[in-house]
Every structure is written in C-alpha cells, then in structure tokens.
Amino acid sequence: MNTKTANAPPDSLVEQWIRPQVRALSAYHVPEIGNLIKLDAMENPYTWPKPLVDEWLEVLRDAKWNRYPDPHACDLKILLRATLNVPQGMEIMLGNGSDELIQIIAMAVAAPGRAVLTPEPYFSMYRMIAAVTGLEFVCVPLNASDYSLDMPAMRAAIIRHRPAVVFLSYPSNPTGNLFDEQQVCELIEISPGLVVVDEAYNAFAGSTFMSRLAQYDNLLVLRTLSKMGLAGLRMGVLAGSPAWLNELDKIRLPYNISVLTQASAGFALRHYDVLEAQAARLRDNREQLLTALRALNGITVYPSRANFILFRVPAGRAPQIFESIKAQGVLIKSMHGASALLADCLRVTVSTPEENQAFLKALEHAL
Ligand code: PMP
Which of 247, 279, 280, 329 minimizes the C-alpha distance to 36? Predict the structure, then answer.
C-alpha cells in the first residue's frame, strides 16, 4: 500500500521504528487472477460432492462461534494423529497453515549469530521468516544437473554455520524432486540443531520421515492440509517429540485455530478418503502432464513427486512464454530470476485433465 492519507506518519518516523530487516523485505506477492485458470499456487482443483458439502454445512451450523476455540484442538488432534500416522509418543502442534509453524520454529530459536540453513532453490517463506526473526539465512545450491543435494557443500555449510534449524522441503519446492532419503538421514545425523522435514507435498510423494521421528531426536516433520484440497482452511501440522513441541507451543497464540477451522478440518478428516482419492487423481494427472510435456520440443522437464512440475524453456524466453500463456488465460508461476539455478524455468500446478490441456495448448502456442 503506497497511498498517503492526510494523517499518514512521515517516512522518517516509519524508518525510525520499523526494523531495517522488515523494511528491506518485499511482501509475499499474490497475483491478481481475474478469470485466469489458476495453476500458480499448487492448489487442488477438485471440490467436494454436493451431498458432502451439505453435510459439512450442517456441522458448521452447530459450531459455537460465540465461544473461543479449544486452544488445544483436542478432538481435531486425535483425528490428525490417526490420519497422518503420527508415531506413539510423538506430539503434534497445529498452525494457521504450515507457514505459521515455520514462523513459530524460527521465533523459538532466533538469537544473534544463529542461522537457518536450507538448500537453494527454496520455499520463499523460509528466507522471509528468517529475515523477520533476525536469523542469518544460509542457502546451499543444489546440484545444477538434477537438483539433488550437494552433499559435500551441505556438510561443509552445516559444520561452518552450525544452523539452529535446517529446513528440507521433501519433495522440494520449487524443483519438485524428492531428495535421496539416505542423504537426508545423514544431514539429520550431522546437524547440531533441528532439522525440519517439510512434507507439504506428501500426498503426492509416496515417502515420509514421519515414521523416523523416534529415530532422531532433532527431527521435526511438517505437514499441511493445503495441498490436499483445503488451502483455504489454513491447517498445518508439526509433529515431533514433546520435548521440542512443549517449548514451541508457548509461542503459538492460544486461539490460532478457529472454531470454524477445527470443525471443518475435523469433518474433512472424517472424509479423508475423498481427499485421498483426489490426490490419487492428481498423481495420475501429473504423470499424463509429464508425458505430454516431455513430448514437446525445446523444453526440459524435471521429474516431479509433487503436484507441480518445473520445466525450463529456451534461454531468454521465460518472461515472454509466461506472459503469452497468461494472455491465453492460464496463470502459472515464473521462477526465472528467483535463483541462478532457476534461469529460464517456469512452474505449473497439476490440475484437472481439462485445465492441464488448456495449459499445454497455451504453452505449445507460446513456444
Ligand atoms: N512448505 C512448503 C514447501 C510450501 O511450498 C508451502 C506452500 N506453498 C508451505 C510450506 C506453506 O503451506 P501452508 O501455509 O498453506 O500450509
């Protein structure tokens, strides 16, 4: 917002009091969509069948929104533990989206001279949250050929910076691949601080570190319901040992999960088969989209274990191709410029066969 009103504070006052690290940030950018087909944010395009929506609305009718929500969301946690196969003895903590949980972790460890480490390219909120909480942000480039972990560089950076937290997006956003499991285990073993395995795309991955929580006392596993079709609900889950989570829970605002969210998420989890079936469809759609993209000349398509696909277009053409696809009614995400490793790269969310087809047609035309 740049609008100046008559009683707006002078810039000098803002500069005096808003920390330079905050002023240096750009707000998280969410583009206007209008009538575009939205394939930029890894959302699930499928909605629920009407009878299920009606049933859900009945549940909401009984929600007690005149009262504060259960601060511990006890009923919802029982359902989540069972649904996400949280191992015995491990605790879970809920966030208003998993990005809130990333922020809580950062707030809990932040102190002068401490660092957060993550491979690059990375999910942009890791950097933003590190900046706001005053943590040094260390990123270690992935191998350029296949976006695998550069293990010698990761080992060296962990020894040198002794990060308070290592964030590993598994599968990796925005590259889409799954890091080698044994390599991730080694990073957990050599890390002096926490390792957060961020499994936002777990529904499409077929691999998890959840079952390894008891094996490593510095491991936390992060999940979200966003990519399962509930992005609008804002429901993130952090799993790990009670020793960590009891501390982190002190930072969480007591009523961060609203009455409506608790009721809706509970309802959704009781119908988890519907969400799982949608994820399965999206995995099939992803394979079809990968095949179709690989058949196009002039682009490099990267393997994906998530609900999005990263691809590289001919050098220098990413902005024009992105704009052309948009002009044809489809919004994807340009990753060009986000990292040296993403030069000429675009990222598309996997959607319904119809929307994927519209995207493919637009891309072919743009190329
Ligand atoms: N982690 C990763 C790797 C992500 O890509 C995202 C969202 N794009 C999130 C966390 C945050 O998801 P949410 O806040 O919707 O749970």
Answer: 329
Pick the CATH number of 50-270 from 3.40.640.10, 3.40.50.1820, 3.40.50.150, 3.90.550.10: 3.40.640.10
Residue 4: predicted pLDDT: 57
Residue closest by Cα to atom 12 of ligand 1 = 98
Report the C-alpha gap between 318 and 312 in whole angstroms.
8
The pLDDT tens digits of the residues spanning 238-250 come to 999 999 999 999 9
For 43-83, write each residue's pLDDT tens digit.
999 999 999 999 999 999 999 999 999 999 999 999 999 99
The answer to whether 29-44+274-366 and 50-270 have equal CATH topology is no
- All structural domains of the chain with their residue ranges: 29-44+274-366, 50-270
Q: What is the pTM of this model?
A: 0.95
What are the pLDDT digits (tens) for 139-195? Answer: 999 999 999 999 999 999 999 999 999 999 999 999 999 999 999 999 999 999 999
Q: Which fold has domain 29-44+274-366?
A: Aspartate Aminotransferase, domain 1 (3.90.1150)
Q: Where are the alpha helices (DSSP H) in the chain?
A: 11-17, 20-23, 50-61, 74-83, 98-109, 124-133, 151-161, 181-190, 242-248, 259-270, 272-294, 318-327, 353-366
What is the Å distance from ligand 1's center to 344 Cα?
A: 23
pLDDT of 331 reads: 97
**Best mutation site among 224, 235, 304, 347 for ligand 1, i.e. most ligand atoms within 8 A of its Cβ?**
224
